């Protein structure tokens, strides 16, 4: 009964915006995903069906029909839409393909339909059902050649993340962007047989903690141990706890910057240093914390001493300033350079994708993998 009640609440709280002629095959939520933003023009066409353009969601007849294979060129000029050379006064436009076919946006196919918004130029938004959205996400987030256990775990994590983070870009008029800020999404062109199977075999499965959908963040590789939320976000999250991996010191990397550039970047971020004298950081030991490292071994801060001042720089700031793959690193001075030696890639929270592959290679199931990376969660099928 609890699951049914949750599903009922979820259905009621999910407001699906429907353009005339578009009918959902199930009650699964619809995602609105930004494809491009602030552009002056875009092209659309239907390969196997015509396109229909509406100016209002209640409109029964389209203002324009574009035969299949013919292109619709939309330009945004002087706060108006110009469709194939003709100007239309409208707050927004809706583009729908006939016969449930994909719409090509700038020669790339997307399931669902499209809205065009006026917003510092033109914003192109793809309305797509959750499962169709995942078809275009999972192969961009994880190689389709990886074991099915890992692909299924990624599918559940991606679905959970999407449902938890709907309305993340609400002020901009859509739910999610199509980049790594949310999840990488490339529409139908990204789909593969293996990842589509992984999505289908986990259809509607979502992770919960104490009755609420979790924020299922994930990253490339932990380097040997994941991180606890408070070390990255500054707040405790019960299901995002540091856990060990099958292997340590994975995905080693080295990054070198000149001492001159190192000091320049710090001073540009209001850290007065002058001539660099020394850098203080405890040696890296994965799974062992210290005053300047988290319990997983990630850098919390370093101390930089110069002839014009001393400063403390956080690990996250160092990662941002010097585009470091992770905060799991040592730092050394070598001649006229500062050298970072580290492991892994990403923030270290939640699912480690390469770690998931290692578990799947050893026969672990998607649920076993997810239960390792997200503490005390349950996985429930909500549609």
What this model shows, in words?
This protein is an alpha+beta fold and about 375 residues long. It contains 10 helices and 23 strands. The chain has helices at about 1-15, 130-135, 140, 150-165, 195-200, 230, 260-270, 315-320, 355-360, 365-375; strands at about 30-40, 40-45, 50-55, 65, 70-75, 80-85, 85-90, 90-95, 105, 110, 115-120, 120-130, 205-210, 210-215, 220, 255-260, 275-280, 300-305, 310-315, 330-335, 335-340, 350, 380. It has a 6-stranded antiparallel beta sheet. Strands 7-6-5-2-9-10 form a 6-stranded antiparallel beta sheet, with no helix packed on it. Strand 11 and strand 12 (about 120-130) form a beta hairpin. Helix 4 crosses helix 5. The longest helix is centred in the middle third of the chain and has 17 residues, at about 150-165. It is globular, with a radius of gyration of 24 Å.
Layout of strands and helices, then pairs:
Elements lengths: L1 H12 L16 E10 L1 E5 L5 E4 L9 E3 L5 E6 L2 E4 L2 E3 L3 E6 L5 E3 L2 E3 L2 E6 L3 E8 H6 L2 H4 L6 H17 L28 H9 L3 E5 L2 E2 L4 E2 L9 H4 L20 E6 H10 L7 E5 L20 E6 L3 E5 H8 L6 E6 L2 E6 L8 E2 H9 L4 H8 L4 E4 L2
Parallel strand pairs: 15-22
Antiparallel strand pairs: 1-12, 2-5, 2-9, 3-4, 3-8, 5-6, 6-7, 8-11, 9-10, 11-12, 13-14, 13-23, 16-21, 17-18, 18-19, 20-21
Which tags fit this structure?
383 residues; alpha+beta; six-stranded antiparallel sheet; 10 helices; 23% helix; globular; disordered N terminus
């Amino acid at each position: 009964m609890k699951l049914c009640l949750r599903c009922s609440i979820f259905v009621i709280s999910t407001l699906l915006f429907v353009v005339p002629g578009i009918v959902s095959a199930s009650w699964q939520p619809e995602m609105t995903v930004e494809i491009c933003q602030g552009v002056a023009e875009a092209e659309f066409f239907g390969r196997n069906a015509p396109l229909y353009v509406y100016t209002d969601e209640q409109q029964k007849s389209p203002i324009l029909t574009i035969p299949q294979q013919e292109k619709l060129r939309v330009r945004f000029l002087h706060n108006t839409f110009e469709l194939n050379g003709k100007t239309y006064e409208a707050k927004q436009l809706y583009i729908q393909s006939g016969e449930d076919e994909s719409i090509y946006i700038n020669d790339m196919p997307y399931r669902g339909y499209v809205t065009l918004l006026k917003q510092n130029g033109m914003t192109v938004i793809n309305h797509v059902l959750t499962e169709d959205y995942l078809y275009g996400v999972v192969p961009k987030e994880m190689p389709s050649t990886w074991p099915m256990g890992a692909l299924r775990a990624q599918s559940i994590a991606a679905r959970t993340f999407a449902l938890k983070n709907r309305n993340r870009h609400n002020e901009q008029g859509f739910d999610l962007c199509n980049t790594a800020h949310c999840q990488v999404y490339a529409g139908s062109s990204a789909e593969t047989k293996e990842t589509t199977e992984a999505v289908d075999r986990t259809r509607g499965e979502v992770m919960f903690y104490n009755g609420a959908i979790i924020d299922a963040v994930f990253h490339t590789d932990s380097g040997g141990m994941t991180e606890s939320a408070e070390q990255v976000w500054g707040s405790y999250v019960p299901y995002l706890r540091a856990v060990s991996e099958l292997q340590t010191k994975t995905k080693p990397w080295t990054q070198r910057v000149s001492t001159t550039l190192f000091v320049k970047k710090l001073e540009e971020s209001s850290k007065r240093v002058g001539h660099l004298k020394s850098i203080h950081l405890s040696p890296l030991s994965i799974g062992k914390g210290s005053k300047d490292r988290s319990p997983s071994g990630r850098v919390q801060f370093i101390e930089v001493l110069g002839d014009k001042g001393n400063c403390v720089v956080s690990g996250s700031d160092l990662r941002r300033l010097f585009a470091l793959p992770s905060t799991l690193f040592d730092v050394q001075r070598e001649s006229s350079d500062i050298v970072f030696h580290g492991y892994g890639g990403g923030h270290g929270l939640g699912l480690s994708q390469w770690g998931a592959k290692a578990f799947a290679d050893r026969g672990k199931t998607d649920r076993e993998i997810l239960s390792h990376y997200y503490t005390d969660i349950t996985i429930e099928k909500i549609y």
